[in-house]
Amino acid sequence: MKKLFILFLWLSFNAYAQEFKLSGMITGENQMALPGAVIEIEENAQKTTSDYEGFFNLKLPVGNYHIKVSYTGFETVILPVKLQKDSFVRINLNPKAEKLGTVIVQAVKATNDMPVTQTNISQKSLQEQNLGQDVPYLIEMTPSVVVTSDAGAGVGYTGIRIRGISPQQINVTLNGVPLNDPESHSVYWVDVPDFAGSTESLQIQRGVGTSTFGSGAFGASINLETDRVSKVSYAQIQSSYGSFNTQKYSIKGSTGLLNKHFEFTGRYSKILSDGYIDRASSDLNSFYVSGTYKDEKNTLKAIVFGGSEVTYQAWYGVDKETFETNPTFNYAGAIYDDNWNVVDYYDNQIDNYKQDHYQLHFKRLLGENLFFNLTAHYTYGRGYYEQYKQAEDFADYGFAEYDLAGTHIAQTDLIRRKWLDNDFYGIVASVQYKSDDHKIIIGLAKNEYDGRHFGRIIWTEKALNVDYNQEYYNNTGIKKTTSGFAKSLYQITDDLSLFTDIQFRKIDYSINGTLDWQYPFKSSDDLFFINPKIGLYYKPGYQHQFYVSLAQTHREPNRDDYVNNAPQMPKSETLNDAEMGWKYQNDKLRSEVNLYGMFYKDQLVLTGKIDNVGNPIRENVGESYRTGIETQIAYQLSRDLELSGNLTFSDNRNVDYKITDGTQIINYGNTYLTYSPSVVGAGVLRWKPVENLKLDFTGKYVGKQYMDNRNIPESELEAYWTANFLATYHLTGKAFKNMEFSFKLNNIFDRKYASNGYMWGDTPYYYPQAGRNFLAGVNIRF
Fold first, then answer.
1. Which residues contact 457 (CB under 8 A, 6 or more apart)?
2. Measured between alpha carbons, how far is 357 from 359 in angstroms, rounded to an integer?
3. How large is the average pLDDT for residues 327-347?
4. Strand, coil or helix: 505
């Protein structure tokens, strides 16, 4: 009996003494990981910190505990945990109220409690893969996104579509200031290379979203926020190298907060690449400088950034036969003989452009719950693209024809430069009121764009008495916009909130002068839009969130729409958008389902055609729609392994698409909208086999698309899928604060595919993308 009693005591002691693993992940605003958070067990004062991915590990005996989690800038939380087996917990911290927060960014950026379909990407996530590719390639794995590159490898001219929406219809803001070119409506990421290096956070809103300045979002918006004030000083250097002689060099630093009031940050980056496509080289430079003053009631921040790019043109694509046999062939710069055989290439067939941005942000605390923000901005862009042209008519350039030795001379080879010199400036003001159950933001913006387009000849073979300073065409586009908005988030109950938003925009736009081929052109348009939005957000508990929203927005045509459709005036677009979503999360699972319906009137859709400089041609199509379901999931298989992905199924149609062949109207019925795949998916398997090492295996699938609204077989762009691999290794040391090594292998299985193309009549042309290629880099922070 005594032995049995001793055995019982021994087993009981071991059962009590047995330790289990308590692990978890600490996240903050928008579910972003918080590295360096302090985790403390109150019962025994045991402490640890979260790692670079926000994870932590502890070993504890069976029992009841209270976990205390603290992180600078966030509210401390204390949570009870009953430990009876290995357990995993996910703890989300709320940011502390920041009286002098970035109010202007809040005006366009959606928070978690808004009925907005959104994806948030942290600075850390951007930097892990920021090895030289443009921003679109850094966000490729987000829902409903398709990216493409003229040069084939993500450096140089790149594009992005979201839900099939073209870049001209995606609203992009930077610190609340529109980044879209006011005339073309596009964002040329190549003009601000490596801007991800100065980006604190990036938010993608799908649908109408909350964008309040600039052109209306017709399917998506991208909102970027630059680096916030760093309280500590640091220096950072980054270098990378990869396929196609791609190189990146970057240096960045901050003074930290000086005398509790001042902070200065700077960055310089250089990116070089030969490109996958022949001669599609890129020589890119960028800089970013900011200075901030901050006290209890005021924040003043001045930002200057800019970029310069010299890229060899690669916008011609290749025909189907060439795509199969010689996909890297580049028509740009080709010089032909009389039988149209390529005999040489012009070595300066380049795009050369510079862009400088100036922003001044002022924020003031007017009262306990009242804030004022004022932003002034100015952008100066200038540059040209140069082309070698053969057998050009004298009449198109204003040259005098002549006779020589009995031959009439009316054509010549020449080199021309098409210039753009533009100024964009304005002022943005907003007032925010915030109480326990109500938040109201009211804003007003006034902007003006002055763009001068002109062309010069720098060499001719046969023309006589040419004045090379003379402009053979010259026209000016002037666009003045006034916009205002009022939005409100009202907490009806603890679980239910109501979001309302109304915006107005007044646009005056005129073009006057001569276009190519000595063609006189004059156009003006005055437009006024009212864009309302309403939505409900419901969170009955920690695990579930629901939202629904209805919105209407309008968008004006761009410059090319006016020019290409002349003498007919293009119509502005109208979108009615309905969004409904459900989010669920527990300790191991996060999932989201979103249903959307976007119904258009007079949508300006891509025709699949391009003009003589590679710009896409659009047309009004009457009624059209985009409906779909977007799903996302992330599951923590174990402490070291996570599986995540997203999948979009959509139906994107023209309603009774009609065209005329000059003699009759042909109705093609409900055809698929161009460049709008019905299926887009992405998946990531993330494995952390050892501390500080992370391995991401990713896959991307894009369904078939049509490049012509008639959906003729020749216009089909085949479905494709690619697989990539990203490895990052992070370590700390005495000589540096942090060192991170990154290796990215793109298109692991060397798939041959084209992500974009266009139609020349009924003949398709494709933009081939690179096969297997790599990028490797190191980022050191002192």
1. 397, 414, 415, 416, 417, 463, 466, 468, 470, 472
2. 7
3. 93
4. strand
Two tokens, residue 612:
């003589």
Let me know: does 486 contact 534? Beta carbons within 8 Å.
no
3-state secondary structure 174-225: ECCEECCCCCCCCCCHHHCCCHHHHEEEEEEEEECCCCCCCCCCCEEEEEEE
Q: What is the mean pLDDT of the chain?
A: 90
pLDDT confidence of residue 97: 46
Helix (H, G, I), strand (E, B) or coil at 390: strand
pLDDT reported for residue 106: 60
Task: Report the distance separating Cα 504 and Cα 553, nearest Å.
Answer: 10
Query: Alpha carbon 189 to chain centroid distance?
Result: 9
Q: What's the pTM?
A: 0.88
Q: CB neighbours of 57 closer than 8 A, spacing ≥ 6? A: 21, 22, 23, 48, 639
At residue 93 the predicted structure's pLDDT band, cuts being 50, 70 and 90, is confident
β-strands 87-92, 55-61 pairing: unpaired
Q: Is the dihedral of CA 449, 515, 218, 220 positive or negative?
A: negative
User: At CA 220, angle to CA 217 and CA 221, rounded to 5?
Assistant: 75
Query: Is 618 found in the same domain as 713?
Result: yes
Residue 567 Cα to chain centre, angstroms: 34
Query: What is the domain-level CATH number for residue 69?
Result: 2.60.40.1120
Q: Residue 501: which residues within 8 A CB-CB, separation 6 or more?
A: 210, 212, 485, 486, 487, 488, 532, 533, 534, 551
Nearest to 230, CA basis, from 781, 700, 750? 781
501/211 Cα distance (integer angstroms): 10
Of the candidate ranges 95-104, 186-195, 284-293, 652-661, the one whose mean pLDDT is the lowest: 95-104
Examine residue 98 and state whether it is found in any structural domain, yes or no.
Answer: no
Please state the φ and ψ torsions of residue 245, each to the nearest 5 degrees. Answer: 55, 35
Note the pLDDT of residue 211. 63
Q: Within a domain: residue 7?
A: no
Is 482 in the same domain as 526?
yes
Mean pLDDT calculated for residue range 262-286: 97
Give the domain range for residue 274.
Answer: 234-781
Q: Which pair of structure tokens corresponds to residue 519?
A: 């063609």
Q: Name the domain boundary from 92, 118, 133.
A: 92
Q: Is 119 helix (H, G, I), strand (E, B) or coil?
A: strand
Residue 671 falls within a domain, yes or no? yes
CA angle 589, 593, 594 (to 5 degrees): 150
122 and 85 part of one domain: no
Q: Which of 97-111, 394-408, 520-534, 626-640 has the lowest mean pLDDT?
A: 97-111
**% residues pLDDT > 90 (the chain):** 70
Answer yes or no: are the C-beta atoms of 152 and 767 closer than 8 Å: yes
Token match 């070595």: residue? 347
Last residue of a domain, one of 30, 63, 92: 92
Q: Is the separation of the CB atoms in 60 and 51 below 8 Å?
A: no
